[in-house]
Amino acid sequence: MSSIEIIALALGALTIASALMVVLSMHPVRSVLYLILTFFLISANYVLLNAQFLAIVNIVVYAGAIMVLFLFVLMLLNLSKDNEPRASNIMKLAASLAAGALVIVLVAALKDAIYLPVVENVQGNSQGLVENLGQLLFTKYVLPFETSSVLFIAAMVGAVLLSKKEKQIID
Amino acid sequence: MSVEQLLPLVLLLPLIGGFINGVFGNKLPKVVVGSLATLLVAGSFFIALSIFFQLDQAVEVKLFSIISLPDLTLNAKLLADNLSIWMTLIITGIGSLIHLFSMGYMSHDPGYRKFFTYLNLFIFSMLILVLGSNYFMLFFGWEGVGICSYLLIGFHYADEQKGFLNGIAARKAFIMNRVGDLGLLIGLFLLLMQFGTLEYSEIAAVVTAEDFVNPTWMMFGITMCLFIGATGKSAQIPLFTWLPDAMAGPTPVSALIHAATMVTAGIFLTVRSNYLFELAPDTQKVMLYIGLATSLVAAFIAMRQNDIKKVLAYSTVSQLGLLFVALGLGAYTAAMFHVTTHAFFKALLFLGSGSVIHAMSDEQDIRKMGGLKKYIPVTHWTFLIGTLAITGFPLLSGFYSKDEILGYAFAESIPLYLILMFSVLLTAIYMFRMYFLVFHGEFRGSDHQKHHLHESPANMTVPLIILAILSVFGGVLNLPGLFLHDQAHYMTHLYEHNVAGMNLIHMEHLPSNTIMVLMAVAVISCLAVLAISYQVYVKKKSLPKEDAQLTGWEKVSANKLYFDEIYTALFVKPIEWLSEKGYRFFEIVFLNGIVFGVAKGFETAGEVVKKWESGRVNWYVLWMVSGIVGLIIYYLVKF
Amino acid sequence: MLALIILFLTALVTLFVGFAKKPLLTLSLSVLGLLGTAAALICQWYHPSDFLSSYEGVNMDGFAILFSLVAIIFTILIIFSGFEQFKSRLDHTADYIGLLIFSLFGAIVMVSFQDMFMFFLGLEILSIPIYVMAGARKDDPLSSESSLKYFITGAFATGILLFGIAWLYGATGTFKIYEIQQFFMEAEQISSLAYVGLLFILSAFLFKIGAAPFHFWSPDVYDGAPAPVTGFMAAVVKLGAFGAFIKLFTIAFSELYDFWMPALTFLAILTMFVGNLSAIRQVRFKRLLAYSSIAHVGYSLITMVVLTNNSALNLWYYLFSYGFATIALITVQMIVNDREDRIEAFKGLGRANPFVGFVAVVALLALAGVPPLMGFFGKFLIFADAISQNPALIAVALLNSGIGIFYYLRTVIVILQKPGVDNEIEQSEFKTTPLQLIVLGICVLAMLFGGGLLMVH
């Protein structure tokens, strides 16, 4: 096993563990903190995969902006352990059973999967850098790129619609 | 004009009537609505008549294409051959008489215009059913008449007292018919699968070709499915109980739809598909026995009924059973012959009963009638003719058509003949019982009813008279070889001439001597029943039991004559008992227990499935995960 | 392409015109834009041009044009019929219409995609506005609840979908559907990654179309969402999802037919039963519609189970007929406007407003598949196509449509009944607007004469 593989495995295990903690920790603030940790670990995975730009963006946008917003909201609402609705024990049991079953069947299904031969990078280590990414986005993938802007506008309009204070309905 | 031009007109006229009455009906005076509907149907009848006389070879008229895909073509095509035109004549002929009758009968009903709209639409659908040139058109008409029948059974759904029951009766009819329709639809798909087409002529050509190899099981499947369709519409065991309930509809509807035309759609379907049924002898056997059983059971039940329309309804079921026996024997022409005469006298009887009910201020219980013959003479005489015709009184129409079927049964096997004969005897018994109870003896209704007794107006009695004449002379359409050798078997020749498949079917005619003997047996038994009934109901004034207790009259009678008790003990009692039990069994155990049990089962299952919906989003996701796990397990099992 | 651009501009213009607070202007401009989009598509149909149609990721072929045109028609009808409700909140009229148009954009992308990027984007553009619209009635807790439920389950399904796409990429090394097809044709051995990916994508699709056991959200969401949104979900969202479904599975996964067909057969049967059996006991109208829609998904899945040359067209025609009936019923529901949406509230509709009652009855019968209505032809085409391959499945489907009759007929009876006399149910006034009458008119014409469409081929 090469050193890269060992690092990848360790990172993967850490990422999963931290993601699990997001779900399992009782306190919401702690959950969010674990989520931030998870994002960092994912970014580390990106770096390992030679996608440096994506790693940076992931940290800036998710860990930086969105998660901080989450924290603010949580603190403003003063959510604590007591008033958070708890799932029933049956629910917990069922959820763990279902999740466990999913893991087991997935492992069973994928344990001897065939992988495609690894294609060597033509551009070497610079593939994941912003320049190459930009090139691709504005040439080959311009349509998906533009279309995603439609998605954002739609989402934005939706967010405004939902968060705007309702005036008294005119009957 | 040529047949091609005339044929669409036959269809178009009732449709126009339905359209005008449906859309503008509220703005037109009642007289216009009624006479428009009646005249248009009569117009259809005369056009059909002119087609009938100039028709030689079968004619197909393409109207438009419904579906034309590369591997599936369905055309809206009409087919005129002697069978379809024959049915058209019955439908429009009796239809126009019943329209005329309804103008009087429904005159006080607030739903007058709606009624005529439905009736016209019914005629239209029924004509599509018989005139279509493929099974698809037939299915269209089939559904159409089903819906019209549903609407008309529940016609008085807003009635204060019985509206709810009427609605239930309508729904029962619709649901039971759907079961049959399902069979028919599957049959259609199987036909499509086997032949790639639904055109009668094309299928007939394939099936009757010299080198056709009979795919036995497929044929069995197809014909069984078609037969299941027929059991629904033509009220055979196990789907027959809707028909008596369907009497909740106005009486003209019972006459037109539930006696003369719609219920014979199953017979028509079988005759139309004769070339298929000939290839599936097993289905014919099933048909034979189901028909026989239905005929007997319905006749048993009719013995105990006291509602004038119910008696007629069970008698219709019994006659339809007889028809299926004929079809099971392969006697298609005989079946059509009996369909024709049955349409005459059963429509007559129903309209007659309508006239009686009308006169009795909507009373339907025969225990409350009696002695009506002097108050409503026209109705009485025509009703008598109808009764005699259905019981097979010599030389009336029912005599010939019934005897023909009995003859074929005799040729098949003697036990079959005996059972069938027994059923015919029962028919005679309950019909005479009803006739005598209604028209003879003392009047047993209230003074109020007695005061209002009146003969119906002319537009109600004229159809009765016409139908009575037809019931008397209808027999000449297919006389047995015994009389008038040249003109005998008119219908048989007619059908062999240009109806697909019919020329290949040859029924052996019985030797004249045998026919004579059978006829003699029939005549003697009919007359015997008549005599006994007369003795019992008129001379001895025997009445249904409940009333006897009220008047205290039966005790006296029983003491006077010992014969009655023996008769009752030996004959009436067991039959009453059987009839009662049969009624119980089929109505309660079978229908409520099994047929509705299935529906109940679905409802309960619905309840269980509904409980899954706990409204909790966690569970939803959980189910989704389980679904995914299930799918992956499927993958693991597969590889 | 041109059509997509026009549509996007229409949505933007609608949003901006909204500031003027003139609902009629907003309505007319948006409908004009939609008609323009349709016109562009029709031009494309008669004069196919590569420049305007195909691009890296999308291709406006005949299939896409047919599905898109129907989606546009349905959207216009829904905007018409829901206009009264949109108008009641002046601030948001344009937002509502704009969001619906955005969602339509997603639907069109979903039927014209050529690679997984566009497919995924289309799905999200289709879904996100609907998540929002489901909760548009903010004063109604049921509406908010349904929005949240839809969002959470939808997000889960999206995650599953992405997971599946990733695995598929891992197995085939490409996102383009034709290349995936090529790969499966040539591959000597297919990796288990591909199968698992396929199953995950399948699950996400089943969620979107609301097939058992991924259907649980749909009754709640149909019930809670505002009526026009319910109609949109039943007609347009389903159309887009089914279009993408059949496209993906007939092109990319056509080689794996033997693998996914049995699973889909089973699920189709399960879906039919779940939908029909649950519908029997419903007392709320939109829940009834939701279960009926589940049952119809089951019938539609038959086209996928038996793939023939006609499958896509049959599916298209079926969804077309289904959409008209559903939109008509949703419009009727808005006219009845019962606070608790009880089926009982339809009592007397046939007398109080014969035209509306007539349309409702026709629509219910069309859903039940009674000839000669359009719904019957839809079912007939599907069943006729499938009978030779899988008679047992058709028998089950016929049995199910038999069960279906039961609850459709029950509702028909309620509509035809006399208005109730008991005071518990206050009688609705059945107020209609001209636009709703237009919608009903179009729907009823389509249902009555839609069978004629088959003659065109």
TrEMBL record, chain A:
Top EC class for this record: translocase
Chain segments annotated as coiled-coil in the UniProt record: none
Matches recorded under InterPro entries: NADH_UbQ/plastoQ_OxRdtase_su6, Nuo/plastoQ_OxRdtase_6_NuoJ
Gene Ontology CC: plasma membrane
Assigned keywords, A-Z: Cell membrane, Membrane, NAD, Quinone, Transmembrane, Transmembrane helix
EC number(s) recorded for this UniProt protein: 7.1.1.-
Single GO molecular function: NADH dehydrogenase (ubiquinone) activity
Signal sequence, start to end: none
Location of the protein in the cell: Cell membrane
Residues spanning the membrane: 6-24, 31-49, 55-77, 89-110, 141-162
Hydrolase found in the keyword field: no
Membrane topology: Multi-pass membrane protein
Reactions this protein catalyses: a quinone + NADH + 5 H(+)(in) = a quinol + NAD(+) + 4 H(+)(out)
Principal place of residence: membrane
PANTHER family (alphabetical): NADH-UBIQUINONE OXIDOREDUCTASE CHAIN 6
Protein purpose: NDH-1 shuttles electrons from NADH, via FMN and iron-sulfur (Fe-S) centers, to quinones in the respiratory chain. Couples the redox reaction to proton translocation (for every two electrons transferred, four hydrogen ions are translocated across the cytoplasmic membrane), and thus conserves the redox energy in a proton gradient.
Protein family membership: Belongs to the complex I subunit 6 family.
The protein's name: NADH-quinone oxidoreductase subunit J
From TrEMBL, chain C:
Gene Ontology terms: biological process: ATP synthesis coupled electron transport
Family to which the UniProt record says this protein belongs: Belongs to the complex I subunit 2 family.
Record field: transmembrane: 62-81, 93-111, 117-136, 148-170, 190-211, 232-253, 259-277, 289-309, 315-335, 355-374, 394-416, 437-456
Superkingdom per UniProt: Bacteria
UniProt cross-references to InterPro entries, sorted A to Z: NADH-Q_OxRdtase_suN/2, ND/Mrp_TM
MF annotations from Gene Ontology: NADH dehydrogenase (quinone) (non-electrogenic) activity; NADH dehydrogenase (ubiquinone) activity; quinone binding
Protein's UniProt keywords contain Cell membrane: yes
E.C. designation(s): 7.1.1.-
Protein name, per record: NADH-quinone oxidoreductase subunit N
GO CC annotation: endomembrane system; plasma membrane
Keywords: Cell membrane, Membrane, NAD, Quinone, Translocase, Transmembrane, Transmembrane helix, Transport
Membrane topology per record: Multi-pass membrane protein
Pfam hit, one: Proton_antipo_M
Protein's organism: Taishania pollutisoli
Cleaved signal peptide residues: none
Biological role: NDH-1 shuttles electrons from NADH, via FMN and iron-sulfur (Fe-S) centers, to quinones in the respiratory chain. The immediate electron acceptor for the enzyme in this species is believed to be a menaquinone. Couples the redox reaction to proton translocation (for every two electrons transferred, four hydrogen ions are translocated across the cytoplasmic membrane), and thus conserves the redox energy in a proton gradient.
Record localization: Cell membrane; Endomembrane system; Membrane
